[in-house]
Structure formats: C-alpha cells, structure tokens
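Homework help board

Subject: predicted structure for assignment chain

Our instructor gave us this sequence and asked us to write out the predicted structure in token form, then describe one feature. I got the tokens but I'm not sure how to describe them. Can anyone check?
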Amino acid sequence: MGVKEILEKALELKPQDRLTVVEGLLKSLDEPNKSLDDIWLEEAEKRLKAYRDGKLKGVPMEEVFAED
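My token output:
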C-alpha cells in the first residue's frame, strides 16, 4: 500500500482515531536518533575547540536576536 492509499484510508477514520494516528506519527519523528546525536556532539566539540583556539568568533546574543 502506497502513501496516497494510506492517507486516503486514514481520512476515512473517525476524528479521534485520526488524532491517534497523527500523534503516533509525530511521536515517531521526535524519538532520539543516536547516530544524529553523535554527529551533532562531534560538531559542537569542533566548534567549541575552534572558539577556544581563537579560530572562531562568537556573536553576542543581542545581535543574534536583534530585529532588523
């Protein structure tokens, strides 16, 4: 069964059942991913080292959140 058919079947469900499906799908997207977490950890460590070594400059929070 393809995605289109799954969607068509899901739209035939009662509203509460559709909500259950949506909540389940959203929850599945929010689950931790160890490999992605490892990649981001490595990137964060590289950036911190570059900052501490003076190869990367920080940006003040006020500048980051300033409205143009």
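Reply (TA_rk): Your tokens look well-formed. For the description, you could write something like this. The mean pLDDT is 94. That's the kind of observation they're looking for.
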